[in-house]
Amino acid sequence: MKFIKDTNEERRDYLFQKDKITKRMVTFVTTVLIVLIVAVAITYFTIS
Description:
Blueprint: H1 20-47
């Protein structure tokens, strides 16, 4: 099983497909991680 779909094949068993859903999920996960990191940093500097 490959991780990323490189060519235009009919198989759908790749972990990451180059499509809208994957791009939206990457954007969502990245946004959530940034928000969490900022929240932890603000909490850390508020406590100390």
